[in-house]
Amino acid sequence: MRAIMIMFDSLNRRMLPPYGCDWVHAPNFSRLASHTVTFDNAYVGSMPCMPARREIHTGRYNFLHRSWGPLEAFDDSMPELLKEHGVHTHLASDHYHYWEEGGCNYHTRYNTWHFSRGQEGDPWKVDLRPLDLPPMQGRDPNSRWIRQDWVNRFGMPREADRPQAGSFANGLEFLRTNWEQDNWFLTIETFDPHEPYFCPQRFRNLYPHDYHGPHFDWPPYARVTESEEQVEHMRYESAALHSMCDHYLGQVLDFMDEHAMWDDTLLIVNTDHGFLLGEHGWWAKCVQPFYNEVAHMPLFIWDPRTRVAGERRASLVQTIDLAPTLLSYFGVEIPADVQGHPLWDTIDRDAPVREAGLFGIHGGQVNITDGRYVYMRGFAGERNEPLFEYTLVPHHKLHTFRVEELQDLELAEPFSFSKGCRLLKIPGLQPADPAVLKTMLFDLRVDPRQESPISDPIVEQRMIELMIELMRENDAPPEQYERLGLDGP
Predict the structure, then answer these.
(1) Do residues 284 and 275 make contact, with C-beta atoms less than 8 angstroms apart?
(2) Helix/strand/coil for 276
(3) How far apart are the first and last CA of the chain?
(4) Which of 49, 89, 266, 427 has a CA 20 to 30 Å removed from the CA of 133?
(5) d(CA 39, CA 19)
(6) Cis omega before residue 48 (within 30°)?
């Protein structure tokens, strides 16, 4: 058995031809759809980057218990379980968050890994000389993060030097060496098309347009204050990087064609979430409601056993389904704590695996969808509390928890999934604007762009009941119900 997962970060569903986009140049995504099942109702779970990857490892939601952080001692890691059962797992990636404190033990679950440096503000190249940087929209060129990003850019003069090119080159090296062998799982994971939209000119040339403003290829995580011209320009910059992703995806599809790998190799192409490019008056993600531009994600799967290709599936699936799908493919027993479901019957005949799914970020709205309605539940009081982090490894994204944060910690009783471990219970506060993260209900059938929240007490009550049911199944901390103004467990 052999499997390949190609994962892009912030891959925008609405920029892909298989999902109706008619202006982004992405022929290999169309080609991919002809070879696979395209999922029309795939949703995120835990947000953003590393919480999503924790779901890919564990097959369960984690955003109700903690924020961004490493894998926990009690987590069942899909790549590690495969490794323990004789499947060689290899990661070829340029996703630099793996090498920060808050993601430091994900790649070590694989047998082998290869890392390409240079994405975003990766602390990589060193140039202490004064830099002549262009005027930038919404960014301070003197900030350490922006300066580091530009130092990295200057260190990649050729397309082959770019991190995405390196990740796919390393993945293809694995394939050239091992395509005739058995029992392996390859993950090719690139940070692209995550911002900043640093992209070779040949892909930017696909989107000629007049733009006369300051340098602008990195949107802030904030409300849109830029002009319509700047918003349009940013969308073209994002489209160019999507076209670059399409190009390198095509290299893997070419290899599978040339070596008849469609006969016996599982292929999954996925992402962690989408991105807002001016829709709803917002840039980016995390600080605003998780509208469908962020939460409704693309997903493609080829199962060589059933050989279903060129078809679409309407059943609601989520990121938590990827781990059990891969474990079952290799004949590995699915741990009891996994909440996701293998997707084989969904691929074969669109059999549903759930009635509804949760999604969100720690301390943000808790959201639920049944595929038609999306219900966003905001915090009930004037402040976004009570809120705690539950962890055995108190690391934020870039650093350990501060000493001040740990002064009032307690030991919590074990959760159903923590294998008897008592966890640190650390007071947390997620600043939030109640006017932004408010409670809203959308009917996607009549309002697919989520422009007009509805008032329907019957539907809202049903969504609340489903939310409580799934929170109980996730063994959500009691204070989450209090924070949201819901009946407790």
Answers:
(1) yes
(2) strand
(3) 42
(4) 49
(5) 10
(6) yes
